Amino acid sequence: MARSADVPYPPSPDDVPEGYTDYSPEYRSKQNWLLVWVYVVFMVYLAMVFASGTAVVWFTAAGIKGWFCCAGFPLALLSLGVFVYLVSGFFAKTEVEKQELMIEVTEDDHPKLFAFIQRLSSELGVDEPYKVHVFPEANAAALTPLGLVNLFAKPKRELRVGIGLINLLTLSEFKAVLAHELGHFAQHGGASVYTNRAAVILGNMIRGHGTIDRFAERLKRNGNLFGILLYAFVWVIRFPLWLTAKFYGDLQHKLAREAEFHADRVAAAMAGSNAIVHGLFRARVADETFSHALSDLTKAADHKLFTADLFYHQHAAGDILRRQKKDPEYGKPPKLDTPHHGKRVQVFDEDAEEDHPEDDYHPPMHEREEHVKSPFVPADDDNRSAWILFDNPVELRERLTYKMYRAIGLIKKGTPLDDPKVVQKFIDDEHHETTYDERYQGAYDSGRYLRPGDLDDLDELIRKEPWEDARLANVYEKLYGGLQDKVDELKDVNDELRRLRKNNDGELTKKMKRKIKDLERDREDLYDWFGTFDRRVYLVFVQMSYRVDHDAYYELTNRYRFHMAVQGICKTAEGHFNEAEMYLAIYNAMQSGNAPQQVIAAHTTETLHVFREARKGLKVLLREAREINMPAMKNFEEGERLAEFLLDEDLIREAGESGVSGKWIDKLFRQLSEVARKSSRLHFKSLGQILTLQDDIAARFLITKGFKQAKPTA
Predict the structure, then answer these.
(1) Considering only CA atoms, which of 543, 464, 481 is closest in space to residue 705?
(2) Could you tell me the sign of the dihedral formed by the alpha carbons of 193, 195, 198, 203, in that order?
(3) DSSP tag of 335
(4) Between the CA atoms of 550, 555, 557 and 561, what dihedral angle is there, to the nearest 10 degrees?
């Protein structure tokens, strides 16, 4: 074990206000009320168990004595079913997160990390975690697995830390994040032992009969009379518990919110207000860069490139995002001159924050920042990387990278991993092609499809009515003026459409359908405007290319034709995927919401039709792709068949007349997603190639014709 003096450990603040980490009156009040409701539910549950058990004995005795004619034994059997169903809830297990991404780390492997955790735990006055796990994502959690025995016995606690988060944290920020998580352990003392444990256990007892419930629900959906009766029987048993338990649901949510505020205060008391606020900021950035890196690595995997260090690319993703957003400080917390400086610096802007989900018990970030800075706790920052607490981090990073690849199904067991620098070179080449000049004002960044019209008609128009050189130069100079307003309008419409389709609550009402239709009409009007713009761009650059040299002309027109084919495939695949996903989401919402059977049946028929059309559309576009060869692009061989890249397995079989299995649906969505993702990638690359070629053609045209060389104004 590492000696305490040898462990990198930021000093704790000297000036923590008295009572800073005390529980608020709101916290204690909500905790006490929740405790009352937990035991109300518990007593109702025990009363039902006792009543059903007594009924078994009484009706059995009645059957033996011949009471109620022949009904004694059937009623005893029914009572036994109620008793068994209820008692099974005592043994229901909490749903646990899949362990496939977890690696347990030990004190022998990482002595400095464990010495750090032990010292922090001692300072907080809490027990050390029983186990410590690391996993790839950008998150952290303190877990207390619970069972019935934990109503009376102290549970063992676990700490889970995401390497994707550690990868970006300083030592002070890591201390703050860890103190926040361990602070939740401190909240599990006193009366809250039963509040937290009993609430979870009772929830298991109410919801923990999954096998019986799913069996009854499946039979009921098929119109089976026994299934309908069994479903009704189960519902009648569980309804009193659900009715009683729902009253403490809101209290539990509010208590969890107060617990987050308190854990933030604990973190500030251990590392200072700046450290926990900056840690929360980096957590958000870490999540974004982690997702970005995964997306980049998925593209590399299409070419059989698999990195040995996912987290190397997470750092690179931050640099890529800063270049894309034209902001060298993006993703970096404010620089502070002194420990007291952060008191006057606001990190989270309320106006810039996204809508906070109602079901998220975590308070909005600006509220959390305000809470830990009122009053403010200054502390010296230790800006060393949190990685210094890990021994042999290279091996750990590689193990987690391999687990991540396996979990998302990108590699087979035993696949060798590649040098991260080689893989990053591939990623940089990709982004170079798909990072467009800022003078386009985002007109191409959103993935908008080009709509210049029929290319044959435009080529014919160019032959019949060619523009003069001066007109070409003049139109080119003003080509990109006035784009920003239209780009912003299109973004707003698309965002609203996504919001409506996501929040459909299980059905598309007439009002919602009308609103979606209006927005789609607005979007179509904007597309028409951009279509006119695309037509003008094509006319300008194709005519310029013909006057520069014929090779440039043929290359540009051929690239446009390839691009139009690819974007057609992309649009079709995305359209089928989005429609199928929406119908499936509505179907699942209907099932969970217990919609009328006839409504579910009608929607099921419609959903199956959508799935069949999606599969049919996939077949058509893959057949078209077999006739298309790739042009020269980074990371692709010229002449490669498009279809072979879009889908590297056989197309899913047709759906049967009687329906489809969950496995069939999963495969359909996976293939739709793969074709949509790969064609979207080609769409951006192809567009980048066209824009680069057009810039080169314009420069050569202006020089050749003696015009002033200038980029078109925005």
Answers:
(1) 543
(2) negative
(3) P
(4) 160
- Lookup: tokens for 35: 């405790």
Q: What is the torsional sign of CA 399, 403, 409, 415?
A: positive
Distances (CA, A) of 513 to 59, 508, 517, 519: 56, 6, 6, 10
Q: What pLDDT, on the 0 to 100 scale, is given for residue 149?
A: 57
| Whole-angstrom Cα Rg for the chain | 31
Amino acid symbol at 362: H
Which residues does 567 contact at the CB level (< 8 Å), separation at least 6?
449, 450, 679, 683
3-class state of residue 468 by DSSP:
coil
Q: What are the phi and psi torsion angles at 207 (to 5°)?
A: -105, 0
CA distance 535 to 526: 14
For residue 216, the model assigns a pLDDT of 67
In what helix (H) or strand (E) does residue 104 lie, and over which residues does it extend? Answer: strand 103-105
Per cent of the chain over pLDDT 70 is 84
Instruction: Sort strands 140-143 and 131-135 into parallel, antiparallel or unpaired.
Output: unpaired
Tell me the mean pLDDT in the region 469-475.
Answer: 93
Angle at CA of residue 246, ends 245 and 252, nearest 5°: 90
- Most distant CA pair in the chain: distance in Å? 114
DSSP state letters, 614-680: HHHHHHHHHHHHTT-B--SBTTB-TT-BHHHHH-SSPPPPPPBTTB--HHHHHHHHHHHHHHHHHHH
List, for residues 2-43, the tens digit of each pLDDT value. 555 578 999 999 889 998 988 877 777 777 777 777 777 777
Q: How many CA atoms lie within 13 Å of 201's alpha carbon, on the beta-carbon side?
A: 25
Q: Name the one residue in this structure whose structure tokens are 């309008």.
A: 489
